[in-house]
TrEMBL record:
The keyword Amino-acid biosynthesis does not apply. One of its GO terms (cellular component) is membrane. SMART domains: EGF, EGF_CA, LamG. Keywords: Disulfide bond, EGF-like domain, Membrane, Transmembrane, Transmembrane helix. GO terms for molecular function: calcium ion binding. Residues 195-373, 416-575, 614-794 form the Laminin G domain. The chain crosses the membrane at residues 7-29. This is Pikachurin.
Amino acid sequence: MAANMSFNQLFIFCFANIFIINTFLVGVITATTEPEVIFEAAFQGECRVSGPCHQLCFDLHDGECRVSGPCHQLCFDLHDGTFECACSSGTLDNNGYSCNENSLNGVNSTKNLRKVLRNKQLFVGKHIENNLLDTNEDQLEELSAQQKHIYYSCADIECEAGGLCILDERHLDKRIRCRCPLGRGGFFCEKPVEIRFPRFRGTSYLALPTLRDAHRSMQINIEFKPEHYDGVVLYSGEQQTLEGDFISLTLNQGFAEFRFDCGMGDGVIRSDMPVVLNSWNTITIYRDGWTAWMQLNQGQQISGQSKGLFSRITFRLETFLGGSPNISQIAKRVHSDNGFVGCVRALQINDRTYDFRTDNRGDTIDGVDIEMCTSDICSKISCLNGGQCVALSADRGVCLCPLGFAGDYCDIETDFMIPSFNGSSYLQFPGLGRTFLSFIEVKVVFKPRSPNGLFLYNGDRMDGSGDFVLLNLIHGFVEFRFDLGSGPAVIRQGILQVNDETPVTAHSYGGFSQLSLSLNLFVGGVPDFKDVQRNAFATNLFSGCIQSVIVNNRPLLLLEEALSGVNVVDCPHHCNGQPCLKGGRCEPQLDSYLCHCPLKSFGKNCEKGIDDLDSSPMFYGNSYFEFTSEEIMKRVIGSKISIHLRVRAFSPEGVIFWTGIRESTGFSDWFSIGVGEGFVRLAFDLGSGEVETVYNVSRIDDGQWHDIHVSRHKREAQLRVDDNIPYKAISPGSQIQLNTKSGLFLGGLEDTPIQTYNKYKRGFIGCVSHITLATDYHIKPMTEAIRGINIRSCI
């Protein structure tokens, strides 16, 4: 077992090196005749990788691939102090070392290579793993073809996007490569790349903006992972040659050195310990005038000072990270003629945290030869079901799963009633746009798992400017920020209230008072903080559950209305167990729930039934009947209507009778009877303007039965309560017909604030009986309604 494990590790290592070094191919021509692979003899010695072993080296036991050796193409260590040569293309020469090229044997090197491997398995038995032999044709074809395309002349390649042909510093055989400009990658610079965590290769550099407000004092924090012990990490100064004022951070034989010159000679601070190669290191530097200190990782703070009495540094150059456009110009001053080799995942100078992206969200000005430090992270992660791997950091990747899937690899189907967010999640909805120009009211029910995190954001622009609103948790406190265009503040005349605490108010600055939010609305987080307005000051995503979001009395349907989402799963709650029987709908209410029971059932879990279908129904503020029959609707719509009903009200507010088009633009027809402040209200709109009358002779919210009579003929309507005198109302304009298509609702609606255009906040609380239309049609709600929710018999 140990031998097999060693072989696997060594084989993968050699395969990976060949794959990386030789990355390009033109094609492989296939032939119908497969050449025979001949093994002539075994020789004393060992295999070696670059040299006579021209293509592949396979150690078959506990030997190892070395640097030079006798074989022209394939070399096999036979673990007994001998080796054997073979050919992946051509035939083995009689000398047992060389390969003779010919048209027959050279045309099918992929199949030949496979046969070599199979024959060697027969020869040395268990020392070749089956997974190697199961490598598919495409992989072997690519591997074989890659060996053939190593370029040694710039005349043979054309670098794209302004790339420059140079010698490849990784090899000593004078092969060449393309040196790519910032934002491009691939052998020919043919691929656009986004840089978040840059990797420098010794010939690279990034140019960042000139330092501001750093002439007198500055603090530098940098996190980096070096691969070599020497190189320029960071520098800036007054002149290109660094004559005069400058600062620099370099690695010298593994030790960090900070140099700074205020104009009369440089001071040098050297770390008390070396950096750790191939691991993340942190350096903190603080300078105040001519004195400074530096700390590497958990080491000591080493102090020093520059020469002379000058205490200010003039910065006119850009800030260069990882190297220089001309390393020879600065080598004498920084005491290094090598660029940095390794990765940088964070750089902060004073209050500025740098973003290494190349678009308008980033801080980079220029650069060359920059790779993504995370380029191989997602190659090891396979996200399923449309998931996408992204690098959360320079050494951690995560699958962003679309709605409906969850798990580390998006391999688990899921649905949610209450969305749960994990710190990398978000839901995306249509933005608020310009529908809430001067007034916005937001109510969110949430349960956080972390004291920090943005959980609602809507902006206007993606360049870090423009209007925005957000809700954010900071150290356990809720913060409501917004910007109307004149600076961040709380909404004008706005109020922030958490639970039952005292409301907090604030005012925005400047003369602007309207919001424009053209981008999408995000709940639970955002895809990228660089798309968030710079005055938002948000740095963490929300972790926890969000039960409901209500904007201006309109509930946001978190599942149905979401445009997209990432890494959202279901939050544990009683409703997940589907406690409501007979098709009832479970509505979460904090840590409890409410069942909305279908017609003819009631109870906490809809477990009870209504036996007397002729009894008067009782409504609870979240109840309603819906009618759509032709016999009913022809007596409601048109140029006239007559309604009589008896009501017993237990609340001063609520809609009793409603017909109208859902989510109207404000110009559609509607007709309503309700209770407001204890008085009966009649209101309607025939399409040419709204009219309302309030019967304020006597209140009806006394728990007693009252008669309501309503009639309308064309534009004129009358309202009478009990035996009192009638009140009249006349519709403006010339329209005389009521045209509605949504049916008739009694006692409430499915979404009362939305469907009544915020004229009523909730449904009726009380009983209704003796419902008569046009003096001759008596409605039996328990049997005629197509739908009824939360209805019980009147008490």
